[in-house]
Amino acid sequence: MDPLRQLRLVRRHWWIVLVTLMVSLGVTALVTVRAQPRYLATVTYFVTTPSQGVSDAYQGGLFLQQRVKSYEQLLTSDRLARSVVADNQLGLTAEQVRGRISTSTETGTVLLRASVVDTDQTRALRVTEAVSAKFVELVKQVETRPDGSAGPIKIEVISGPGVTPSPVSPQPVRNVLIGTLIGLLAGVGLAILRGIADLRVRDGASLRRVTDSPLLGEIPLDNDARTAPLIIGVAAASARAEAIRKLRTNLRFVDADEPARVIAITSALQGEGKTTLSCNLAITLAEAGWRVLLVDADLRRSKVGDYLGIDSAVGLTDVLVGDVPVGDVVQRWGDKSLLVLPAGSAPPNPSELLGSKAMADLLLALRESADIVIIDTAPLLAVTDGVVVAVQADGALLISQHGRTARTQVAAAARALNAVSVRLLGCVLNMAKLAKAEAYQYEAYQVLSSSLPVDRATAGRHAEQTAADEPVDNAEELTRLSR
Questions:
Q1: In 3-state terms, what secondary structure has residue 332?
Q2: Which of 72, 217, 266, 320 has a beta carbon 3.0–4.6 Å from 386's, enabling a disulfide?
Q3: What is the CATH classification number for the domain harbouring 215?
Q4: Structural domain containing residue 12
Q5: CB atoms inside a 10 Å sphere around CB 242
Q6: Total domains, the chain
Q7: What residues does the Polysaccharide chain length determinant N-terminal domain cover (predicted)?
Q8: pLDDT of 50 above 50
């Protein structure tokens, strides 16, 4: 993984780094507060030998350094600890005394330092004094020759015993620095792991790779879309509206040699915004002067009528079963060249109805009645309705919601279309996060509309008013549009 992607993952999951850092600092503070203060007592020895014992100075130095290493083991031996406990009332066992003693040497010298750490300052000093005295006696015993004469080694105390006036641990500043470093490293690692394990679609590049199709658009997230899903009124000047217009342009030129006139719009899962996008794409196409027919083929959960504010009690289902002619149920929306065929009543067998010969004949007739037919279909992974409709269209447009749909789900939806040789025109990333630079660039050139906001109810009243002011025979309108 390249460093740039790692940086993006850390930036995306910044809250993980923050939480981990706070937890690390909290644990560090708790451990520091609850830790008992410890004091350090030290004593330093100088190991030497009379000149008459060793003739060569260099060999004598090596000899002493080897002896110093041996004395380190002697300082932490059970023999010394037992001797200290036997002759001093310290309130400690031999094992406890031994555990408090540590040694160190300076490379290339014959200096030996013994250290004692204890929670009691006075006891630390007493143990060090006892260890110092017993160590000197023990060395003399070890180095005494068989004839009773003194050995070639002499131990002298050159520093101490002494104890620090303040505790050597805990050290709050050092602990905070270590806790901060651990928290940052752990947070960054967790953020990267979280990003690697996150299989959801979060950018257009990954969506394009998963579907193996062109990325035709990235529709930015618009919080106002919940209450005003259509890009009319003030919403027509939003960044979301401009992104849909770009999608309109890309869709019209995705294949100039074989343009798609009947387009099925679908998604992998429910709730990814395919119906809203279908309505808005139809509106933008109509605004550009195209004769557009929007068909609500999601017979299980039809929403086109709700968004556009039109009556959807009678529609596609009734046409397919032969109850009404298509011209009697197609409705014109607003003052644009946009016709809408609502879903109608909910059938018991949507898949069979959408895959019937009546549906194929209807699409053939609608193809001749409009420049572009937009079909809103059901999600691909939920039911088979979307695939059945997409097979009969010129191509399909796959919608995926940013941060919601998993890459495996998108791949499964693309495979479902490829399995029946559906022409996948491209993919769209919906509710994407707009980069600050892009948002600023758009706002810098934004031209605010003077229209008032129009919500769903206003859109419905607008459609009803148009129908009342200018009655339209839908059958004749379809015939006229086909010319």
A1: strand
A2: 266
A3: 3.40.50.300
A4: 3-35+171-197
A5: 18
A6: 3
A7: 8-86
A8: yes
CATH number at residue 112: 3.30.70.1130
Alpha-carbon span 250 to 244, nearest angstrom: 10
> Does residue 242 contact residue 275 with C-beta atoms inside 8 Å?
no
> What does the DSSP 8-state code read for residue 292?
E
| 114-159 pLDDT tens trace | 999 999 999 999 999 999 888 888 888 877 767 666 667 788 888 8
Q: What is the pLDDT of residue 59?
A: 61
- Residues 279 and 141 grouped into a single domain: no
Do 359 and 214 have their domain in common? Answer: yes
Q: Dump pLDDT digits (tens) for 310-348.
A: 988 899 999 999 999 998 999 998 776 899 999 998 898
Same domain for 309 and 455?
yes
Which residue has tokens 């041996």? 70
Overall size of the chain counted in residues: 483
Q: Would the pTM of this model clear 0.85, i.e. be above it?
A: no
Contact 231, 257 (CB under 8 A): no
Order of strands, sheet of 338-341, starting from the edge strand that comes earlier in the sequence: 215-220, 424-432, 395-401, 262-267, 372-376, 292-296, 338-341, 331-332
In this predicted model, what pLDDT tens digit does every residue of 338-377 receive, in sequence order?
999 999 988 988 999 999 999 999 999 998 889 999 999 9
Residue 268 and residue 340 share a domain: yes
| Residues whose CB is less than 8 angstroms from the CB of residue 229 and which lie 6 or more positions away in sequence, other chains included | 276, 279, 280, 307, 456
Angle (CA) 189-191-196 rounded to 5° is: 95
Least-confidence region, from 140-149, 434-443, 456-465? 456-465
From the number of C-beta atoms within 10 Å of its C-beta (0-12, 13-18, 19+), residue 346 rates as exposed
Residue that the structure tokens 């002011």 belong to: 469
Phi-psi sector, 411: left (phi>0), alpha (psi -120 to 50), beta? alpha
- Regarding whether 80 and 47 lie in a shared domain, the answer is yes
**Rounded to an integer, what distance in angstroms lies between the CA atom of residue 188 and that of residue 5?**
13
- Tens-place pLDDT, residues 72-87: 888 888 988 998 998 8
What is residue 201's three-state secondary structure?
coil
pLDDT digit string (tens) for 104-119? 887 777 888 999 999 9
What is the DSSP secondary structure assignment for residue 142, as one 8-state letter? H
Do 327 and 439 have their domain in common? yes
**Both 235 and 301 in a single domain?**
yes
230 and 371 in a single domain? The answer is: yes
Give the Cα separation of 266 and 454 in Å (integer): 26
Tokens matching residue 273: 């915004």
How far apart CA 330 and CA 475 sit, in angstroms, is: 8
Per the prediction, the chain carries an average pLDDT of 84
